[in-house]
Amino acid sequence: MGIGKAAFIIMIGNIVSRLLGLVREQVIAGYFGGGANTDAFTAAGRVPMTIYDLLVGGMISAALIPVFSEYVGEDEEAGWRLFSAILSAMALVLCVVALVLGVLSGHVIAAIAGEYDRSTQGVAAQLLRLMVPALVFMGLSGVMTAFLYARRSFVFPAFATAAYNLGVILGAVLLTHYLGIVSLVVGTLLGALAQALLQLPGLGLRRGRMLPRPRLRHEALPRLMRLYVPVMAGLVVSAVGVMIDTRLASQTGEGNLAAMRFATTLIQFPLGLVAAAVSLAVLPSLSAHASAAVRTGETEVGGGEASQRQREARRLFNLTLSRGIRLVALGIFPAAAGLILLRTDIIALLFQRGAFVREDTLRTSTAFLFYSPGIIAAALDQLFIFAFYARKNTITPVIVGLAGVGVYMVVALSLVDRLGMPALAMANSVQWVAHAVIMFVLLWRSMGRVGDATVVATIVKAGAASLTMVAAIFALLTALGPSWGASGVGLVVRVGGMGAVGLAVYVGVLWLLRTEEVNDLMLQARRRLAALPG
Question: How many CB atoms lie within 10 A of CB 225?
């Protein structure tokens, strides 16, 4: 399957997943609002998700997919044997971790949310004990996802997260009346199980076979761990940062942690749709060009007189990275600008119903505003990290990540007493910007350059078009007045209409500025229209 088609499938999966994720947050907000129970569920849910990221999530792109691809490419049966070994070992490790986590749930909650009252801590600990089996299902699903990606099978893993979100939604809608906040835990378990089961058809339809026999020993396991140890260390640093963020948020007042959760969900939509899809699409090509340079003896600038093949591999690596940066910039600039301008209306449209009242909307809007300066940096940073992974360098992102946590701590601890929750959102934003800048500088130093003149031109055009879009939307909102479309169906029209106007202005300005990507899309559209009968 080609990169374009794979990227399209991943993007569609991301869209469905993000939309269901928004519905999930709407359901949680509608049934439980932004109060103590939502804080308890948020604190409990962060624990298995953090452990998943530590043991499985980060391993998928940094280690599992490259190693699986190597074995599958050489020998089909060897790939299945490695898959069996990793799946079995991961199942054993996750079961042990889940058991320990269930026993120590009270201590874990006290460590990350100790400022909550005893009642909220007790609810969070109970939810965590019930939730831990989801960790096993999510981990096994992650291993299956990596194996399917290595086999160039993208459909089932692309929609795995959507299955998880759907499970949480069904649990809340069907069981809240009977179980209260525990319904979210049942939904989490249902979604995690569905996530794993969804992978089975993708595995079973390949040559008519299902999972191979369990085995715990394989010669590649030590190598896999050596490759992943730096990434795991980086995830430990990130996990510590998340726990610190959670604990500090618990000190700022009831509902603030929930507001940060809802704001983060909104931020993750453009990041997942734009940055993740583009990064996953370019990663295989980046890896191939980096490997070509290694095979011809050049890995870093100054490594001797480069041969023609070495120069070509480096040129293609930089060209691919430049293409990725341009695509991310074209997508993330207008998304960030539009979300900042319309944030309160969008949050009200998505979440303000049931127990989620106007006060919760304004609190979430404030959190989003202080998160928002880091959106563009976070999107570009993912490309920079993948560029290091493609060059088999997993240590540098870890060191930079540690520095980023230090930046967060300095900003958060110096401002949280004066500003409260907004200080924590601001600290995260500063951390994202600092991480992206440092990664870019280090990538530039190791490669000699990053991007080319077309990257600068595209960023300038995207920025100019985004500013024009914001001006047009702001002028229209001012002319219509604040009361127009303030609630109900009118709010849908207000947000949808402003979004449509903004998109039209943005694309129009890019077209007037002769942006290559927009011109290519226009050309393809004209060709398709010309090919239609009649």
Answer: 13
CA 37/CA 29 separation, integer angstroms: 11
CA distance 98 to 195: 18
State how far the Cα of 112 lies from the Cα of 116, in Å rounded to an integer. Answer: 10
Residue type, 386: F
The tokens of 316 are what?
A: 């293609």
Residue 48 in contact with residue 135, Cβ under 8 Å? yes
For residue 254, how far is the Cα from the chain centroid? Answer: 26
Q: Provide the token pair at 70.
A: 């190597």
Q: Which residues fall within 8 angstroms of residue 512, CB to CB, at 6 or more apart?
A: none
* Three-class DSSP category at 533: coil
214 and 88 Cβ atoms separated by less than 8 Å: yes
CA nearest to 150, candidates 67, 57, 55: 67
Cα separation, 432 vs 411, whole angstroms: 12
Which positions ≥6 away from 500 have C-beta within 8 Å?
A: none
Instruction: State both tokens at 432.
Output: 């994202």
C-alpha distances in angstroms, 316 versus 282, 308, 360, 400?
A: 12, 12, 49, 26
Task: Measure the CA–CA gap between 247 and 148, rounded to whole angstroms.
Answer: 37
- What digits encode the pLDDT tens for the residues 441-498? 999 988 877 777 888 999 999 999 999 999 999 999 888 887 776 777 888 898 899 9
Please give the model's pTM, rounded to 2 decimal places: 0.76
pLDDT tens-digit profile of 190-231?
999 999 999 888 887 444 444 455 566 777 778 777 778 888
**Is residue 283 a contact partner of residue 390, using CB atoms and an 8 Å limit?**
yes
- Tally Cβ neighbours within 10 Å of residue 175: 17
DSSP state letters, 248-268: HHHTS-TTHHHHHHHHHHHHH
Q: Cβ neighbours of residue 309 under 8 Å, at least 6 residues apart?
A: 292, 296
Cα dihedral value 59, 60, 63, 67, nearest 10: 140
The torsion angles phi and psi of 307, rounded to 5 degrees, stand at -75, 170
CA distance 495 to 288: 43
For residue 397, what are its two tokens?
């992102």
* Distance in angstroms (rounded) separating the CA atoms of residues 257 and 382: 25
Angstrom distance (rounded) from CA 290 to CA 479: 53
- Determine the Cα–Cα distance for residues 351 and 241; give it in Å rounded to an integer: 27
Q: Which residues have CB under 8 Å from 473's CB, separation 6+? A: 338, 341, 342, 498, 501, 502, 505
> Any idea what the Cα angle at residue 163 is, between residues 160 and 168, rounded to 5°?
135
